[in-house]
């Protein structure tokens, strides 16, 4: 099985920064590549703050955090990836961008270097075919935030060999993740299921069957979810949800993926969720944590907050 000792992360955005920190925390030397110094500096500041936060919460010693930080180097020149065992591609979600990334990196890869893509919606097989090594290529779909979400979806392309798959599954375990295997289909397992549930919750609201609070209470108190679907949509970003549903609808041509008009309207209005201060909820007022609003009797651990009244 190919051994993974050094990692390059391509793209220092939302996902790439978190993945780089996770790898460094887990003991891997990491090079983080992006197109601009400003983006890289923002990412490294965020990583430094993230490590400091872990120290403050007692999850990590100061020396351990300093060692993790020292394992990360940044740069804009593809030559910084020379000699790495694994490339984690976390660049902008665009086939053209990802193809350009693979072309730019090709001359700097060792014959044995593995490549994974973190794409949420593109075909892994198609991206693999844009490289010189489809058998050493697969999907490794982290969820956002990559540091905190315990699951990674593993996606084989048509040509992925079993040694590559075993090495990447082993890496995911070293990063402390639980893995599920998904076929190379649009949105894989998590988003394919989640987006349909969110769309159905928005449709339920649109039809006046319930209010946002009652729908979310129904799914938290009634079905044991830790967060209601509308609140979750606000957290993900309603624009992101809409793009995902549109991609599913386009690729799978089934009416169940057609985005609810109310979701489209929210995006048109710029009500994108938490990031814009308004989505299905108004974040200019403090709503408290989901557990406080809709305490789940069997969730244990947390002190339940005030029980919500009749909804
Ligand atoms: P992002 O826009 O936050 O970051 C993308 C980064 O890629 C940017 O910093 C950009 O400058 C960089 N980039 C673009 N072209 C590049 C190039 N040629 N070389 C190097 N870097 C380049 O995007 P993101 O949300 O971090 O998403 C990255 C990947 O992760 C996408 O494939 C996305 O589908 C996937 N993903 C995203 C989420 C999410 O919730 N955001 C969740 C799971 C997976």
Shape: globular
Class by alpha and beta content: alpha/beta
The largest pleated sheet is described as: 8 strands, mixed
Low-confidence stretches: 294-308
The mean pLDDT is 92
Task: Give the helix proportion (percent range).
Answer: 40-55%
| Quaternary structure of the protein | single chain
Strand content: 5-15%
Which cofactors or ions or other ligands sit in this model?
Answer: nicotinamide-adenine-dinucleotide
How far the N terminus sits from the C terminus, by CA atoms, comes to 55 Å
Q: Tell me the number of strands.
A: 8
What is the number of helices?
Answer: 12
* Radius of gyration based on Cα positions: 21 Å
Helix and strand sequence: EHEHHEEHEHEEHEHHHHHH
- Strand sequence of the main sheet, in spatial order? 3-2-1-4-5-6-7-8
Structure in words:
With 311 residues, the chain is of the alpha/beta class. The chain has twelve helices and eight strands. The protein has an eight-stranded mixed β-sheet. Strand 4, helix 4 and strand 5 form a beta-alpha-beta unit. It is globular. 39% of the residues are buried. About 5% of the residues have low confidence. The protein binds nicotinamide-adenine-dinucleotide (NAD). Nicotinamide-adenine-dinucleotide binds next to helix 1, helix 4 and strand 6. This is 3-hydroxybutyryl-CoA dehydrogenase. InterPro entries: 3-OHacyl-CoA_DH (IPR022694), 3-OHacyl-CoA_DH_NAD-bd (IPR006176), 3HC_DH_C (IPR006108), 6-PGluconate_DH-like_C_sf (IPR008927), 6PGD_dom2 (IPR013328), NAD(P)-bd_dom_sf (IPR036291). It is an enzyme of class 1 (oxidoreductase).
């Amino acid at each position: 099985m190919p051994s993974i000792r050094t990692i390059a992360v391509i793209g220092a955005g939302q996902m790439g920064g978190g993945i780089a920190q996770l790898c460094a925390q887990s003991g891997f030397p990491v090079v983080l590549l992006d197109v601009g110094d400003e983006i890289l500096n923002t990412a490294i500041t965020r990583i430094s703050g993230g490590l400091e936060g872990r120290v403050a919460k007692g999850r990590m010693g100061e020396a351990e955090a300093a060692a993790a930080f020292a394992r990360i180097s940044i740069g804009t020149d593809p030559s910084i990836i020379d000699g790495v065992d694994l490339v984690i591609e976390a660049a902008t979600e665009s086939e053209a961008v990802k193809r350009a990334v693979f072309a730019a990196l090709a001359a700097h890869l060792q014959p044995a270097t593995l490549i994974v893509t973190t794409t949420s919606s593109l075909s892994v097989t198609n991206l693999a075919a844009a490289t010189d090594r489809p058998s050493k290529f697969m999907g490794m779909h982290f969820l956002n935030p990559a540091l905190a979400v315990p699951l990674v979806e593993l996606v084989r392309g048509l040509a992925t060999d079993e040694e590559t798959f075993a090495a990447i599954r082993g890496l995911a375990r070293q990063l402390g993740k639980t893995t599920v295997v998904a076929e190379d289909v649009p949105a894989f397992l998590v988003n394919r299921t989640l987006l349909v549930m969110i769309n159905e919750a928005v449709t339920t609201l649109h039809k006046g069957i319930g209010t946002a609070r009652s729908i979310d209470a129904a799914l938290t108190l009634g079905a044991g979810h830790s967060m209601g679907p509308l609140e979750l949509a606000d957290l993900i970003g309603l624009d992101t949800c809409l793009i995902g549903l549109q991609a599913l609808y386009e690729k799978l041509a089934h009416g169940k993926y057609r985005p609810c008009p109310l979701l489209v309207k929210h995006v048109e209005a710029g009500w994108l969720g938490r990031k814009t201060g308004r989505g299905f909820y108004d974040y200019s007022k403090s709503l408290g944590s989901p557990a406080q609003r809709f305490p789940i009797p069997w969730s244990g651990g947390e002190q339940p907050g005030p029980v919500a009244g009749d909804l």
